[in-house]
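Worked example 2:
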Amino acid sequence: MRDEKLYLKVLSGSKNVTFIDFVKLLNAFGFYLDRIKGSHHIFKNKNAPELINIQNVNGKVKPYQIKQFLAVVENNNLRLEKTNE
């Protein structure tokens, strides 16, 4: 799925987001995997002081983790860095 389309899906409040797609979206916003501790995948961004912590639960991301991501994006004025064609 293209980054812009996935971002619009997340913004619309969809709770049906796959873990793999969400990792792609995080990468498109400049986040990188810092470490994995148990089931927690912890991402950092050089332009945001907050960490993003996500879990793969049956191939999906938890809805509250999506909300946390959106809050970090908004609070730090982050933008998509690259697009998939």
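Strands lie at 32-37, 40-45, 48-55. The mean pLDDT is 93.
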